[in-house]
Amino acid sequence: MTDLLHYESAIRLGCFFTVLLAMLGWEWRRPRRMLSLHRIQRWPANLGIVIVDSLVLRLTFPVLAVGVASAAEAQGWGLLPWLHAPFWPALIASLLLLDLTIYGQHVLFHRIPILWRLHRMHHTDLDFDATTALRFHPLEIVLSMLIKLGVVLALGALPVAVLLFEVILNAAVMFNHGNVTLPKRLDRWLRWIVVTPDMHRVHHSVRMEETSSNFGFNLPWWDRLFGTYRDQPQDGHTGMTIGLEYFRDWRATRLDGLLIQPFLQRSGE
User: What residue spans of the chain are helical by DSSP H?
Assistant: First the structure.
């Protein structure tokens, strides 16, 4: 499996574009909700921000998570090497603990006001589709990478586990942000093993009590375990309002509006 590391960039880009195009096609064929805005009003900003994020990461970090994991493995740093964990238990532990980290980070970005200022940009999208999964502020992306690098070093996560985790997480995030229709019975079964679009859509409700639920991006178990799981939105999936009440203008639809959001004051803050 370590041979995968030689093709890291090709694997990441290939999986990203394959899943994104598949989700956009699914949304076109079987949409769950009618969009409130035309795609041309939202997609340029949502797709543009992921380009900005990628450039910022490359300029900020000389080595990203897989590279740090490789360095830690070579030096024997971290908990798993210290425990002499065999390959498969170390792989599974790395995947689970990295996912738990993402869940905990997501909760913190909602609960701590200065972090919420960065994260709320993700929630200001006035619709909910696969491109929403790409919509994160560059400053949040930098902080998220710092947290990930710290966990990878402390854990001594396997490089192949870090690569698999990032590929799986990116695919899962685009899936669970999809404006797609799943049979109710299938959704009820799937949400025991993966976060489904109906499960995560609740998190993007304009109702703050619903925004403060369903924090998982990949595995749904953490929400159930820590009491943050909410089954359905109060207004139903087709009747609920997506977004935040205080960003429903050009600041929610243009790239420049997204970038300045953390520095804007809203009533009551």
Answer: 8-29, 39-60, 65-75, 79-83, 87-111, 113-123, 138-155, 159-176, 184-190, 197-201, 208-211, 221-225, 255-260
